[in-house]
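Morning F.,

Quick status update on the modeling queue. The single chain you submitted on Monday has been processed. Sequence for confirmation:
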Amino acid sequence: MIRRDVIYQGRVQGVGFRWTTNRLARDFAVSGTVENRSDGSVYMVVEGTQSEIDQFMEAIATRMSTNIKSTSIQEGIASKEFQEFRVNY
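Structure tokens below.
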């Protein structure tokens, strides 16, 4: 199990990015959170197998391609602190 801390930048707030990400997460064996940041970016923590996370992130990239200008990723070991994937407000 791995963990990815991801920062999406671009036109990612006010366009349903968090809702879309949360909805897409249901199709994959992942857990974590997604939230807006005060600098206009969206921060996501996702945990699962590398394959599931890769597929999940590809689905986000495909669905939100016109909104995402850059993606920063830090990878580590899963903390197993999340039971599901949810939106933080």
